[in-house]
Amino acid sequence: MNPEQTEQFEKAKKLFAENKWRDAATILFDLQNEVDDEQLTEWTTRALYNSKQYKLAYQVATQDPQVFANDVKFLVQVGLKAQHFISTRAMILRQPEEVIAKLLPLVQRAELNYRQEFKATIQNQLRTFYHLGDYPLEEQRKRLLAADQLPLADFMVGAKFLLRDPFTQQFVRADILNILQQLKCQEKITMLCIDQKEHLIIPNNLPTAYQDSVIVKCQQILSKRLGQTDPQILRALQIQLDLQAILLNPLIDKIITDPEQWIDVMYKRATTGEYSGKNEQIIHWQKRLNQFIDKLQ
After folding, report:
1. Which of 64, 110, 149, 150 would disulfide-bridge 154, Cβ 3.0–4.6 Å?
2. Alpha carbon separation from 199 to 191, 206, 242, 249 (Å, rounded)
3. Which residues pair with 259 in a beta bridge?
4. What's the confidence (pLDDT) of residue 294?
5. What domain range is 281 assigned to?
6. pTM, two decimal places
7. What is the per-residue pLDDT across 36-90, written as a single tens digit (0 to 9) for each?
8. In a domain, 235, yes or no
9. What's the total number of domains in the chain?
């Protein structure tokens, strides 16, 4: 921080100590947009929370949640006051077992209170989520983000339907699966996968797309081949492979049966613009995946 910013920070801390939280929050919020500083993230979040600006507090806190590693309970309280039940659950479930046992009941109680007080709101939120498939990709993703404010039971109703809905975009299905994995969902759930067939899955039993052993192997092959010779193409193909993994999950190992040949086709397409290789199945899947990926450009 420069001298002027430091002076503003000290002024905000003085206001905070005087319980003038809204005035402090106004100064701190502007400062934390100017300066990347963990102290500012914490002070701003606490000032916003104390002045009951819960949505903004959540927005600031989740930019750098590690700031609150020693006060996870406060981060949970911010999430619950902002009514972000799903991501708050996911955050709790990343903690040690003893922390989970203490904090999960807070979410359950907050959801119960929310359901009793805002029945009509929940019905509208669920309806908006449920009809996500009627819209293009960008709107689908917005509606999935909004569903973070549904209680778990209602979110699960929508998620199960959308995983089977043929009008749910493949990337959005993948996002829903990822959320269910973060929630450590142990239910058997039916998912319409990229092969256009329904598969029975248990999200908690699946590796995340990036951690899948086949994807790890493909990344190793890429790094070995291009790490010393063409870092620019390497980075582009690493990003492409990550996107492919997201789309293929949970069928990664069933579709990428030969990582070396898979990378061959990726590299040739990146350098020549053409699909070529001995394995027609690999070419078929690469073309199909790139149809989805190209729409993101």
Report:
1. 150
2. 5, 13, 22, 11
3. none
4. 85
5. 210-294
6. 0.92
7. 889 999 999 999 999 999 999 999 999 999 999 999 999 999 999 999 999 999 9
8. yes
9. 1
C-alpha 219 chain-centroid distance: 21
Residue identified by tokens 């749910």 is 168
pLDDT of residue 297: 62
The pairs formed by 98-106 with CB atoms below 8 angstroms and a separation of 24 or more are 99/72, 102/73, 103/72, 103/73, 103/76, 106/73, 106/76, 106/77, 106/80
Rounded distance between C-alpha atoms, residue 48 and residue 188, angstroms: 40
Q: Establish if 108 belongs to a structural domain.
A: no
Task: Examine residue 46 and state whether it is found in any structural domain, yes or no.
Answer: no
In a domain, 71, yes or no: no
Convert the chain into a string of H (helix), E (strand) and C (coil): CCHHHHHHHHHHHHHHHCCCHHHHHHHHHHHHHHCCCHHHHHHHHHHHHHCCCHHHHHHHHCCCHHHHCCCHHHHHHHHHHCCCHHHHHHHHCCCCHHHHHHHHHHHHHHHHHHHHHCHHHHHHHHHHHHCHHHCCHHHHHHHHHHHHHCCHHHHHHHHHHHHHCCCCCHHHHHHHHHHHHHCCCCCCEEEECCCCCEEEECHHHCCCHHHCHHHHHHHHHHHHHHCCCCHHHHHHHHHHHHHHHHHHCCCHHHHCCCHHHHHHHHHHHHHHCCCCCCCHHHHHHHHHHHHHHHCCC
pLDDT single digits (tens) 221-239: 999 999 888 899 999 999 9
* Whether the Cβ atoms of residue 104 and residue 89 lie closer than 8 Å to each other: yes
271-273-278 Cα angle (round to 5) = 85
Instruction: At 150, list the tokens.
Output: 């549904």
